Amino acid sequence: PNLVQFEGYGSVNRTDPRGEWFILNRAFLGRSGQRAGQPWVVSTVHANDGRLIGKPMIGRAEGNRSTRSLFVWDPTSGSEKSLYSLGITTPPPHGTRARRALRRGDTPFGVYLTGDRGLGVYQVAQTPADAVSVFGSTKSARAFGLAKINLHPILMEGGAERNWRNLIRLHGGGSRLSNPFAPRQALTATAGCSRFCNADLLAVVDYIREGQQRDGHTNGLALIGDRDFLVAMSGSQRLKRRWRRFGVYRATGLHYVDLVRFILLNYKYRTEPSEY
Predict the structure, then answer these.
(1) Residue 29: its pLDDT value, please?
(2) Which one, 102, 167, 169, 225, has the greatest CB density within 10 A?
(3) Which of 15-29, 97-111, 144-158, 218-232 has the lowest mean pLDDT?
(4) What distance in Å separates the CA atoms of residue 61 and residue 238, rounded to the nearest whole number?
(5) Neighbouring C-alpha atoms within 13 Å toward the C-beta of 258
(6) 16 Cβ contact partners less than 8 Å away, ≥ 6 residues apart
(7) HEC string of 237-255?
(8) Which residues, 6 or more positions from 239, have their beta carbon under 8 angstroms from its beta carbon?
(9) Beta bridge partners of 123
């Protein structure tokens, strides 16, 4: 396999004889207007040969804001504690590893398998009524909208792992919106996931289904991070060991060296030490 990224400005070729696929979420902070200082991602879906499938989409990667609803994991008690209860009244700024490490904070950088907790790779609904049935309650349906892609971490940033960050999802919806099921709903903050327009996420699910049918691998790979994180993953011995432990090749058809090749062909190699 060859993960050579295609930037997508030419014609789109959706043919992948192997059928393997992966999702790349490039993280950035908004620079102007209402988005200034907020964490966002540009998400692209790629065939295993690196070609772009469909169009890039924008997602919001912002978690909770109040220190009353941002938490750290206390290993002594085996439970989470809010920053507020620890006497912290101002959370770390967006765009920092410390903010992404917090439970229900901004979406943590990581390398993920798609599919988690017996829910499969994705859950989709065609109508709001279907969403209640698919997601189990009206509250969950409004939060997730018409689609949700489930992620299982292979390796996350160290702080996020120490805080046992989990339930990382890509989904639509928006609990505070008047119509969270609209195709192009406003992108509100989440409780630690990344939110996309319902129409965009339904299109991604279609691409995933095509890949699954062609290849036979149920799972794909999802990368979330900025350039520095992605480059660090190309030389991470921890990720290499976990690739074997989690059986990533069996699940996706992707070798660790395929990820390394993709990153090094697309991002300038960084020589300084990394903690990943």
Answers:
(1) 85
(2) 102
(3) 15-29
(4) 25
(5) 18
(6) 47, 48, 49, 51, 53, 211, 214, 215
(7) HHHHHHHHHCCHHHHHCCC
(8) 111, 154, 155, 233, 256, 276
(9) 148
Residues 78, 79, 82, 86, CA torsion sign:
negative
Please state the rounded mean pLDDT for residues 249-261.
87
Q: What is the pTM of this model?
A: 0.86
Nearest to 171 by CA among 136, 192, 146: 146
The mean predicted confidence, pLDDT, of the chain is 85
* Rounded CA separation 60/78 (Å): 30
Residue 239: both structure tokens together: 């990720």
DSSP per residue over the chain, as a string?
-------SSS------SS--EEEEEEEEEB-SGGGBT-EEEEEEEEETTS-EEEEEEEEE-----STTS-EEEETTTTEEEETGGGT--SPPPTTSHHHHHSBTSSPPPEEEEE--TTS-SEEE-SSHHHHHHHHSSHHHHHHHTTEEEEEEEEEE-HHHHHTT----EEE---TTSS-TTSTT------SSSEE--HHHHHHHHHHHHHHHHHH-----EEEEE-HHHHHHHTT-HHHHHHHHHTTHHHHHS--HHHHHHHHHHHSPPP-S----
Beta-carbon contacts of 100 under 8 Å, excluding residues fewer than 6 positions away, are 106, 107, 108, 109, 157, 159, 160
How high is the pLDDT of residue 117?
A: 63
Amino acid identity of residue 214, one-letter, is R
